[in-house]
Amino acid sequence: MSPYTRTDAVTRRLMAVIAIAAIILSLPLRAADPQDTARALITGVSAESVGSEAPHYSTQVQPIFDRRCIACHGCLGSPCNVKLDSFRGVDRGGFGENPYSTRLTADPRTDMDAADSTAEWRERGFYPVLARTGSTQTNLDDSILYRMIDAGMRHNGPGFSRASVDPFRLQRFAATCPSTADALAARLQEHPGLGMPFGLPALAEEDFAILRDWIAQGSPGPTEAEEAQAQQVANPTAVAAWEAFFNGSDPRQALVSRFIFEHVFLATIVLEDSPGDRFRLVRSRTPPARVADDGEGGRQVESAPIDLISTALPYGDPGAERFWYRLEKLTAAPVQKSLFVWYLAPTEIAHLSDLFLSPDWAADADLDPPWDVGNPFRVFAAIPAESRYRFLLENAEVIIGGITYGPVCNGQTATYAVKDQFWVFFLDPAHDVSVQDPSLGLDGWDLFMDRSLVGNAEYLDAYAKTRARLEPDGWSLDAIWDGDGENRNAWLTVLRHETNVSVLQGAQGGMPQTFWLMGYSGLERLYYDTVASFEYWAGDGPKLETLLFFNMLRQEFEDGFLGLLPREERERIRHQWTRGIGSVALSLIPFETADQPTRVDVRGPDPLRDLVEQIAHRLGPRISGLPDRLNPRVKPEVAVDAPIKDFEDWEAAVSMLTAVQGQRFVPELPSVLVLRLNRSEGPPQDRHRVYSLVANRVYKSQYTLMFQNGQALPEEDTLSVYPTLVNGFPNLFIDLDLADARRFLTDLRAVQGKDDWNRFASRYGILRDSARFWPFYDWINRWNVEHRGDAAGWLDLSYYDAPET
Questions:
Q1: Domains along the sequence of the chain with CATH
Q2: How many beta carbons lie within 10 A of that of residue 460, not counting itself?
Q3: Cβ 747 vs Cβ 763: under 8 Å
Q4: Which of 173, 424, 526, 573 qualifies as a FRET site for 150, CA 20 to 30 Å off?
Q5: CA–CA gap between residue 160 and residue 770 (Å, rounded)
Q6: Does 46 score more than 80 pLDDT?
Q7: How large a percentage of the chain has pLDDT more than 70?
Q8: DSSP character for 766?
Q9: Does pLDDT of 130 surpass 90?
Q10: CA 261 to chain centre
Q11: Where are the alpha helices (DSSP H) in 563-707?
Q12: Three-class SS state of 477
């Protein structure tokens, strides 16, 4: 059988799976009827108590949306496409197509840059959730937003039925949304528990009154003066300095800035010398800020408003003969699930200039490559490969953050290709053959981004031949980048939590089952496949292609790490990491490092552990962060049920349950538990500690869209504990006093099945029908800001105390 035949067969099987899923997922909750006049069945909608003046949007209304709504409505593809993190989003309204439903054709773009005005959004099919007729009663009656929060006030008091909305959570990838108040009234009459906040406690009376009055008075937004004020930055000189760098006069700078832009366009940028501000790097038709004389011997910054150039993909043709890179201030509240930060100190300007512009460039370098080409190897060939790679290495958490924290709300099946916990290492530029010989001996660059099985196999063959030529004796431990002794991006931990993914610096969570080793070409292929070239609005075909290529890349990086081990161990471990249906896929993807020599001397009964310990010793504790007191390999000499008097006792006791397979309670856990541990004594700032308890699930293979079905290996699942918040999607909050900590661990270890877990969660968890829910949510968000600063965003509640799959 030829590779092409195999490819077609695999594709047919996968498309069959998708077709079945499409039938299942496309069942609507209820067909919305725009002619439905059932609004009279909703009683008590009245404007009698409405205030005479509209509440102020920026100081009264948006803070409520931030505290209670953007937990689910602050991202791309939020429920009904309603985005409530800004007035522009609220005014835009909703969209009838579910962004996560199975479909063959593309939908319109729905990111906030895709249209300039509410009128344009209406032309694209968005419908209003507000009403502005001049009559307070009609404004309330005709507002979808008001109808939803009013229903929540009526039916989501403490103790409401949690189970009543679970079926809707399970069908969220196929749900349809009413586009008129009449149709919504009929839906609510049939399912009164669908009010907002969805499946969570109702708003406080004072918050409800503010939103009611604002909607009744025509829902006015911020004034132009207020919007201009919001755009003011703490240090305009700092912004001007960076914009001067990105738009420098060196003829090579335009290509360098283009390279940087395409790799950080999703990142939130924090300037060290402009505290309190957040930015993003954009392309603008207006020139950058500049520092000029103020006429009185001083200096002032002159800055034109940004005229945004929005293209579907970051490498799209800007459509302007001249444009500039600008830093646009972000004014919407950040949500944790899509927040990853590129921190920039003033000294970085000189460093980046030296990194990119000090090396020699080829005399015939193409400094003006074409647009709309999703192949970075071709477009940026003029930039020295080591400069490109070192930028990615030094900012690896940001680059991987683009993959793990994209703006879409949920990864859905895209995350199926990601294993639940693994560690990532990088090749040192001096040992990366894609840096030493960037073309890998090929005549062109097309093969680098060929996402087919055949094209990937040819790329791997070229890489192997180049390595055999340049590294004939194989890799030693020196081949692993050590972060130059300081940069913690050299060792990353990646975690998957059902439909979302996290990335952390250092070796966290205990010894994982699998590891990656990647170089420049691999990291670049991964980034452009999943971020720069990812069309969130596309149909299922292109998304399936992205998923399949990600699987091939994951295999390439796992195989790269295996190349450090003795040859006789590699095949066994490769098949241990991929079992079940994945064994078929292994036969289709060449084992590129199978016969590669190695200069690593691995000894002992566990070659993987010995190799990782050698890497940890070479990179040192500054890079690895080891030892990990919460997830140690060598356990302390304590019992899980030993007395717990302080936080140190707790950490020792809980560490007895972490990074250990075969514990029956772990498969019953949701993905992420957030626990606040309290003590009554000590300084006020140290009365509480926050921990994240994360379940690491193991599957036979990631090579199937429905791997949970029969592919799970619950006996190999493990628990990891982190001394901070991990991920932006908590599944359950737990508020625990030290006095109860011993019993908590004993009861947790006693969980043996779903019924046991439900009883445990009811006893220790803050369920979503609890009156304690919002106070604790507010507290944990404040803690997040106080302890994590610019890296803190509002936590998402899409999966809180609810079915995950």
A1: 30-225 (no CATH), 232-383 (no CATH), 393-624 (no CATH), 647-791 (3.30.1050)
A2: 20
A3: yes
A4: 173
A5: 9
A6: no
A7: 92
A8: E
A9: yes
A10: 19
A11: 567-577, 582-588, 607-619, 621-624, 647-654
A12: helix
Backbone angles phi, psi at 324, to 5 degrees: -135, 155
Q: What secondary structure letter does DSSP report for 75?
A: S
Span 275-331, pLDDT tens digits: 999 999 999 999 998 988 776 767 889 999 999 999 999 999 999 989 999 999 999
pLDDT at 724: 97
Residue 804 tokens read as 């995950």
DSSP 127: B
Tokens of 74: 């602050």
Could you write out the DSSP letters of every residue in 37-70?
-GGGGS-----TT--SSPPPIIIIIHHHHHHHTH
* Bridge partners for 492 per DSSP: 424, 505
**pLDDT value for 707:** 58
How far is the C-alpha of 317 from the C-alpha of 310, rounded, in Å?
10
Please say if the pLDDT value at position 802 is more than 90: no
Query: Is pLDDT at 431 greater than 70 in this prediction?
Result: yes
Encoding tokens for residue 75?
């991202």
Q: Hey, what are 226's tokens?
A: 């207020």
| CA dist list (Å): 329 to 18, 482, 800 | 41, 34, 31
Token digits of residue 656: 């007895």
| CA-closest candidate to residue 10, choices 645, 587, 592, 676 | 587
Q: In which band, very low, low, confident or very high, does the pLDDT at 47 lie, cut at 50, 70 and 90? A: low
Q: Is 541's pLDDT higher than 90?
A: no
The DSSP line for 158-179 is TT--SGGGHHHHHTTTT-----
**Residues in a beta bridge with 719:** 695
pTM for the predicted model, two decimal places: 0.92
Contacts of 263 (CB under 8 A, 6+ apart): 391, 392, 395, 398, 399, 402, 527, 532
> Distance between CA 608 and CA 562 in Å, rounded?
9
Q: Provide the pLDDT confidence category of residue 30 given band limits of 50, 70 and 90.
A: very low
CA dist., res. 588 & res. 594, Å (int):
14
